[in-house]
Predict the structure.
Amino acid sequence: MRSFASDNNSSVHPDVMQALVETNNGHALGYGDDRWTIEATELVKQQFSRPCEPLFVFNGTGSNTMALQLMTRPYHIIFCAETGHIAVDECGAPGKGTGCFIRTIATPDGKLTPELLAPYMVNFGVEHHSQPGAIYISQCSELGTIYKPQEIRELCDYAHSHGLLVHMDGARIANAAEALGLSIDEVSGACGIDTLTLGGTKNGLMGAECVVIFNEKLVGEGRYARKQACQLASKMRYIATQFKAFFTNDLWLRCARNANRMAHQLASELQQIEGVTFTQPIESNQLFLTMPIEKSRKLHDQYYFYYWNEPQGEMRLVTSWDTTEEDIQGFISHLRSL
């Protein structure tokens, strides 16, 4: 079955699978004391201009919870867009894991700004109120939009001036970097964020993520936060070896490039179909659109996708590293037949 439901539905890249096969040989020390993890850790560090501590984990919800737990206390507020993954799609895990109040903020495009945060920068030092503590942003956002480097810098400067820390959920950070023609560092670490989830699962890896800690004050407790968040893998080599493949011969870039290119190709085809209206700008590998509801329901019988806002008939289509032109033509042909 081929679908446009999520890049989580895509297969594992053959280079990654080959790396796993080659790693699956004999015994190795557990919990990251193996040569693959040591080598992959250095490789991740080389991607960034700032000193950092990469800690490999195995899923996105756990990585976000771990990073936010590391930078907050239970009396803090964590701010995010109302569409933010930690508020919508993680079953309350970050709130439960941190004990913090998750304050959502309405945005037109899924991105936070200093202006949107300003009304909430209140009650500092008042013991009756939860204290502003951290900001969560996604790169790309849950609406497919991308933070430009200057936007991230301004947001980080504003947060730090108020004593807040910034965590970036980079589940699709490769798509953001490719779309802007920049490095992963230029759309994340170099802009001043404190922690980053360096995503791999949505871009060709098999259940592999990495929490990268830039704030030197947080490094010392990072490993304890990972363990407490249940994200310390015993057979760490199988996660680490995937990141070695990820950063060899620009695999991360090649995968993201295909996903983004296929999204624009799909959008170009959809724009020629009467009744299709895009609800968000097309910046990455996610498309948000509406069409007559009776048509989308029939389409859903053949091609699985998610309704983003079902009452409004808004649907989300996501392309992946393994999306092909044949996938797109099949989808468009079926849609036209309706």
Remarks:
- The longest helix spans residues 251-270.
- Residues 33 and 70 are 22 Å apart (CA to CA).
